[in-house]
Amino acid sequence: MIRITVCFLLLTCMASCGILKPRSKAPVVFANNIVVAHRGAFKKNKLPENSIASLKQAIALNCTGSEFDVRMTSDDSLIINHDPAFKKLPIEQTTYAELIKHSLSNGEKLPTLREYLLAGMENNTATRLICEIKPSEISKERGKQIAAKTVALVHALRARERVVYISFDYDILKKIVALDPGVPTQYLNGDRSPEQLKADGITGADYHYSVFKKRPEWIASAKQLNIALNAWTVNDAETMEWLMANDFEFITTNEPELLMELMQKTLTRNGWKLVWSDEFNDQGEPDSTKWGYHPGAHGGGNNELQYYTANDTLNAVVANGVLKIIARKEIRENKAYTSSKLQTRNKAAFTYGRIEVRAKLPAGRGTWPAIWMLGTNIDSSTWPACGEIDIMEHVGYEKDSIYGTIHSDAYNHIKGTQKGKAIYTADPYSRFHVYAIEWSPEKIDFMMDGVVYNHIRNEHLSVKEWPFDAPFYLILNLAIGGGWGGKKGVDDTIFPATMEVDWVRVFQTK
Ligand code: MG
User: Fold this and answer.
1) Which residues neighbour ligand 1 (ion) by CB within 5 Å?
2) Is 393 among the catalytic positions?
3) Which range of residues forms the domain containing residue 435?
4) How far is the centre of ligand 1, averaged over its atoms, from the C-alpha of 38 (Å)?
5) Catalytic residue among 49, 92, 255, 393
6) 179: three-class secondary structure by DSSP
């Protein structure tokens, strides 16, 4: 017991001293999707349910929530497990020390709530921690003690802003509301109306989807009362689509990847139509019907240090569902590095639309990856009059910033008048983000993961300010060095450096 207390104090001290870094300095902005991974994203990668690995996978997928189940051992340790027994040992009648003699199927230790919350706050600025408190099989009272201990730990770890409490036991939720009024709570059992939830201070209805099918009037009243709508556990496309059509805020699923895919298609129903895409599901060289190269030692006009190759899978290759653009330290035609610049020039061009690219960026000083567009009239009208739209630019020496910018005759970086803004991200290297623009005759919005961070309005002056009513082609490249990327030199230990692109999707209005 003493040993446990000492560990507890040590951990608390380490947390408060910042040694465990439980909070990332980036602000928490929940992912702009409806996907709650049920017991973490376990299924596709055959991870154990409720493991830290499945939680990390849900965070990597950018799910808006990841669910897990809290139970308490006979000696009052809060641990994460769905069933009342772990390895045939009844949790409430077994000590923590006895339980952790057994591990999860991936070798992971049976997680404590503390370990789970800390893991859920590390490198996570987008995924809610959906904390289900299981009722006690011993007594109603013990269930409420579990709730109180959980709330206290969430506060001690400063995890409150990330947590949503859910339970099948109404009294457990009422206890939480009494302890922490205003904290998000969702009831699971499907036998209370939104009016009752509202009256008891419970903020959401997370019911089996069949409940909502039987009582569609609850969907309407929940919306009127500002009661969040969630449904469990939805694993088929048809039900997901029905819930999406009814504007559910959350869907809890064992198939988060499927729901993410359906959400993309739903864009279609919201007035957007997928007109061009590359999901990078083939192997080898990028699809030559979609992509061409811009080879040579031209330096991109910014005195960059790379030689761009063509048809070389060492620099551009599709494998395992992603395109990799790889910069290497390798001398070619007096350039110190090789890399690749892919473009849809003479293959595909777009005027207006929503253009989305899911990508993970290369790390290291000297890198300058970009996802961008140029006017197809570049040869006749020349740069910058042709217009440039930088959907995503990043320089390795400034690792927390993503830039979205336009250039035109009137607004460009030569004059220092370009219109750019940055969005902060803690993890452009460890996680995929969706970099996008929404472009119409009136505006171009620059987005990361659905958050608009730069809004450029068409001032309706002249083509000098706004050359964006014309076709533009797409470019994906990884430059090394150059006027911006090389401002602080190049770290030669970072190679090969790789930008990964999961997909490119272009939507236009029907
Ligand atoms: Mg659960």
Assistant:
1) 69, 132
2) yes
3) 292-509
4) 7
5) 393
6) helix
